[in-house]
Structures are given as C-alpha cells and as structure tokens.
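Hi,

Apologies if this is the wrong queue. I'm a grad student, and the batch job for Copper-binding protein from Streptomyces colonosanans produced an output file that my downstream script rejects. I'm not sure whether the problem is my script or the file. Here is the sequence I used:
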Amino acid sequence: MRRNRFKAHPTLVMLVAVVFTALSLAVPAAYATVSRAAKTTATQVLTWTAGDDYTRYASAPTTAVAGPATIVFENSAATGNTTGMPHTLTFDTSNSDYNTDVSLNIQASPSDSNGGRHTAEVTLTPGVYHYFCAMPGHQLMSGELIVTAAPGDDTTAPETSATVSGTKDASGNFVSSATVTVTASDSESGVASIQYSLDNAAFVTYSKPVDVSSVGHHMLAYKATDKAGNTSPVKSVEFTVVAAPPEDKTPPDTSATVSGTKDASGNYVSTATVTVTASDTESGVAKIEYSLDGAAYVAYTAPVGVSSVGRHTFAYRATDKAGNASLVKSVEFTVVAAPPEDRTPPQASASVSGTKNDSGDYVGSATVTVTASDTESGVAKIEYSLDGGPYLQYSAPVVIDRAGSHTFVYRATDKVGNTSTPQSLSLTIVDSKPPADCPETDSHSTVFVGSINTGVPNRVTANGCTINELIEDHRAWDNHGAFVSHVGEIVATLRKEGILDQREAAEIKKAAAQSDIGMPKRGSAGH
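Support response: The file is valid. Your script probably expects a header line. Output copied below for reference.
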C-alpha cells in the first residue's frame, strides 16, 4: 500500500495530541487498566510497537504462554513514529471465534504523558486472541496471538480421528485408490505434530491426506503430540484397495414390448403401452431415451402410453455409465379408436327334441338345446335354471328324463356384461323311470326330511336322481347324528354342483337337525 509522507507542523501535532488525549480519557472503565508506571508483576512481557506506518504494527508477538502477562504497547519516536500520529492496541471481545476474556484498549501517542509507552497487566488463557487498532483508518493493523498452556499444566493428549475416502465398489472396497485424512485437536497447549504409519512401516510426519493406490488390504496407524509433549494413543483404520475393472466398451442391451387390448386385426384399441428395458453388466445403465414418431429423444422413466389413433414408430436407445450408447431400435404398432360401447344383450333361443306322444308330452326324456349370438362384444356365457333351481353354466344340451312337468329358464351374457332377459319353456315327461342307482323313487315336488317340508324344489341332480332320492331316509339309522352328517355331505355336494343355493342348503340341513330320524326307540320316519 502506498503511504503519503509529510512533515507534521508542530501546531498540527499538538492539536492531534490534544484530540487523541481527549479520546483516551473516554475509554470505558471496563478495559484493562493502563499503568503509567512501568510495573511488571507478570512472568512474561508481550510488547507491541507502532511507528509511522498506519497499515501494520512495527512489531507484535505471535505466541504466548497461558497465565499472567504484562502487555507493553509503545508508539514513540524510539519505535519509529516521527509524525506524532496516535495508535491503539485493542483486544477483540466481540468475535466468538476468538478468546474474549481479555478486554484491552491502549492508546499511545509520542506526545502523551508517558511518551507513548504504556503497560497493562492481564491473565491469558489457552486459545487465540484477535487484536487490532481501533483508531479510524487503521483497520489493517490487526493480528492474532496464539496462547498455549504453560509447561507442566497440560497433561492431556490430543484428540485424533481419521476418515477414508474414495470410490467404492459394491463390496465396499476402494477402487484404484483411497485417501486417508487424519485430524487432531488439543484445547490446551495445541497440536505440535501428527504422525502416521502405513502397513507397519516406521511412523512419519503427517502433513496432508495420504493417498494409497497399491492393491491389497491396508492399515494406517496414526497418533498426535501436543506442544506439552503429550502423545495420543495409536489408532488405526483398515481398508482394501482393488484394481479398477477393465474399461467398459460394451453398450447396454435393450428391448421393448407393446401391450394393450387388441382387435381381431392385431391393432391396439384406444391405447398401446410401450415398456423399454435395458441392462448393462459392466458399468451399469445410466439412462434410457425414446423418440415417438420422429420427435426429439426424451428420457424414459416409465412405460409410455400412446393413445393417438394411427400408425406409430417408437425408437429407443440406452447409454451406460461409461458413455457407451446402444444402437437405436424401434417397434411399430397401430392404435385404433374403441368401438361404440356395447349395450345390447345377446339373442338367446332354445329348442326341445325327443319322442312325443299324442298329447304332446315327451316319452322317456327330452333334450333342450340353447343357442345365443352377439354381434358386438360376443357371447361370454349361457346359463339355465331347471324347475326353479339356481342358474347353472350351460355347456351342452340338457337331457331331462324325470317324469313330470318341468320349467326350463335360460339366459345369455356378452363379454361386456349385458345379460338377456330370461326366457322359459315348459314340457312334460311321461313313462320315465329313475336311474337304477337311485335309492328309491320319490315324486314329491319339494324336499322332505322325515315329515318336515323344506319348501326347496325336489330337483333332478347331476346323476339323474332327485334330491329326496339321494337323501333316502327310510332305512334304519344307527343314530340321529349319522343321519344329520349324511344329509350334510349330500347338501355340500349339491351346493358345489350348483343344484342348491346357500339358503336352500341351510333349510335342508336345518330340517335334518330338527327331524327325529335316528332318534333312540324310534323307527325310521317315512315321507
């Protein structure tokens, strides 16, 4: 910095001295007392001097020992002040980054009553003090005083730690190299040195992070010594360095699939969804990109839905972490508009075949054939109900071979859920006999259990026998429980076959439990 030199006029020097003498009288009482006599009771003397230079002190201590100290600040002709300019020595108590336990503000001028030399008695503690010149225009006159613990007072070794950094593989090994950073701190006398040993070699001075690039397992031991001679216990970190894998020059493998609802021509109805996959066994996939119908490539993050009607080309590519890009591939597909919503149920019809007598009744048996058609979504299923029973799936013509009058109800449902209005036909079978394996012939219209009428229709089951014929309660039963169990097994089978619904099954089991069939001292009950 360039300084202006001038010879001060005596009157000007006297005026400045008077002004700064007045300023010195205004120094707060909280500052350390400045002794006008050169008394020294401390064990150490720390001296600052100032001269003509207003950018820095002429001299200043950099270190001290904790404890009592005599602060000397001299700004006089003897220290190089030829202009009479006053200076101050101020200890900063406003910055928490520094020690703030010494409040000191000494103003000195060659023309003051002490001839520019002043002293103050203070007590220093370990740490760092920041000092500066408080006079206007003297902000550059500042520095730091490092205070360490007095010899013999510090018996605590430094605190130490180490971290290992670098690029790791999936197993936690460091690829190519590892860097070990050691830190140490000491709040009393301060850290004097840090040392380390790599793989049991001799300890050497640590001055910067240690790079280890040799392949293998390593151990770095470290310790620190403070200025009072205390050495920390030896600590260590272990790590493994592995060689970098061979350079990846192979691009990722890519593929794409198109999904959605197709029509008979293979076109996608309403929307087609394109899913892209990419894999890379070396450096790994970094990104996938796609272009739809020649547009700019954009990042692929999730399956892409395409709903605009027409022919489309979906191009895609992938890049791995080493920068290798795959060849562009593409898939083509066509999206068509969805047909109008199907709200029309199927058309269903039924026909009966068999041998008739003169009265129009079917002799022995009759076969009912049901057909259904749907010109929109198509037929999904046909169902039928015989004599008021639950609807059953129709898969083949139904043979009715039990004597009596029968009602056959049928309906059809298309693929979007539209169900036709149930239609029915009635027919009568004559001269029919039950199958030979039916326990007995029972022509009741409803199911009876003993003398209890359940109200459930006595339907023909899958083997041609009626429900009552399967139950057959005329034979002798060892006990009531055996009969109830027998009925329960039959009902479970008929429920599974769809002959009975849940309510009907419950009614029959309830009647079996309430009947007296199988009770002691009673014979089998008849219908």
